Amino acid sequence: MLCNKSAVELATMLRTRVVSCVEVMDAHLAQIERYNPRLNAIVTLVADRARATAVQYDAHPPHTDAMPPLWGLPIAHKDLLNTRGIRTTFGSTLYADHVPDRDDLIVERIRGAGAIAIGKTNTPEFGAGSQTFNRVFGATRNPYDPTRTSGGSSGGAAAALGARMLPLADGSDLGGSIRNPASFCNVVGLRPTPGRVPAYPTQNPWFDMSVLGPLARSVDDVALFFSALVGDDPRVPIVLTDPGPTFYPVTPIDLRGIRIGLTTDFGGLPVQTEIKHRIEATGVRLQSLGATVEYACPDLSAAGEIFHVLRANMWRERFGSLPDAARGELKDTIRWNLAAGEALTTADLDRATHSRRTLYDRIAEFFRGFDFLLGPTTQVVPFDVDQPYPTQINGVAMGDYLQWMQSCARITVTGCPALSLPAGFSSEGLPIGMQIIAPVRAERRLLGFAKSVETATNFASRLPDLLSADRYTAPR
Q1: Which residues are catalytic?
Q2: pLDDT tens, the chain, 476 aa long
Q3: Which of the chain's ends, N or C, has fewer CB atoms near its CB within 10 Å?
Q4: According to CATH, what is the number of the domain 2-457?
């Protein structure tokens, strides 16, 4: 079945004319027709436009040596990205009928790499929160259990990948919005170093906590996609200029002698026991293959306040000038964020900046002793799709809707690249992800290590029950 092929396999088949672009497109559109009504992952579909593009691609293919890396692969863009001529709502009633007349830079790059847009994936309102629901389209469900959430804010992207409706999907990540849904949907998601995937246009081009990045079903697929997203753009002041071939193909890293710091809680965060056990089991497996694994974690205790202050200030910059009527259309958690931003003082911002400088030095020192840090992606397994966010973990009350995702948010403020990789399943068959963190700008090495871990564990191959009765039983 074409939808079960990896992006790398499909790209090779398309390049060698084993299959046509129309065949690949029709297979994925049929998969969307079959499963999307139950999952609500793809919220705007431009099937006729996508198929017409596939027909054109087949009629006028480039020479094999000049074929773009994503030629003919279907993709849907997160509904936070502007897509020319395709409805873009940002998950907000304020933009329910918005059709932009331009593409964001990442959309241009994906199209330039040969992928064919089929529509948009669901996201919470303005990407706020790691549970994908909004008043325009409703909630996105988890392919491994449709009564559960797919996570967020790239929840539509991850659910579409898990259900084999797409081979690739783009995402964005501030506090875990690529990593969290990748974990919940048993796929791979990479949060790159800020500036690695240039974003344009943006309100504040120097803000480095929100990044764009790839999601896919394997490390190789993520790397292929990533190689098409990176590279210079003179309009982006924090851009990193390493070209695509730096990151693909992936060279696995020999695990013998690799120094891994392992944490189950990133310094005392409440984490469900089954998740801790899966992280520890991974550490045991890697140690058996020659890696040196030691319980260790840098002091991240200041990261929560840094994240809250800088994130709240971002919301103030973005929505502070909205008139009262428009503010009233924002969901309650965004209004809460906006109020927190407007209450900030210069002393708050100075303290956060100073604390982040100290934290950055501490992280750099940690990576002098370790090659990678490995820990849980999320603190909980996928929860009820009708629950806005977890209110407690292991009996510890969550004070607000951000506290349950600190395992990702704490890493955000370090600036380090982090990849969520499938790590196994709970006793209820729910996906669990591990977060692999590397030093700043070390994505190439991170991908190589992640590929070695993926080969050693092989949890991503387990299909959702929704798709197949031939359920792959992974070791637990």
Answers
A1: 78, 153, 177
A2: 999 999 999 999 999 999 999 999 999 999 999 999 999 999 999 999 999 999 999 999 999 889 999 999 999 999 999 999 999 999 999 999 999 999 999 999 999 999 999 999 999 999 999 999 999 999 999 999 999 999 999 999 999 999 999 999 999 999 999 999 999 999 999 999 999 999 999 999 999 999 999 999 999 999 999 999 999 999 999 999 999 999 999 999 999 999 999 999 999 999 999 999 999 999 999 999 999 999 999 999 999 999 999 999 999 999 999 999 999 999 999 999 999 999 999 999 999 999 999 999 999 999 999 999 999 999 999 999 999 999 999 999 999 999 999 999 999 999 999 999 999 999 999 999 999 999 999 999 999 999 999 999 999 999 999 997 434 333 33
A3: N
A4: 3.90.1300.10
| Coil, strand or helix at 75 | strand
Burial grade of 322 (CB within 10 A; 0-12, 13-18, 19 or more) = middle
Asked if residues 92 and 33 have their Cβ atoms less than 8 Å apart, the reply is: no
Assign 45 to helix, strand or coil.
Answer: strand
Taking Cα atoms as reference points, which of 70, 110, 54, 104 lies closest to residue 84? 104
Cα dihedral 168, 172, 174, 179, rounded to 10, equals: -10
H or E segment to which residue 435 belongs: strand 431-437
How much is the pTM? 0.97
Residue 467 exposure: Cα atoms within 13 Å on the Cβ side? 23
Every domain of the chain and the residues it spans: 2-457
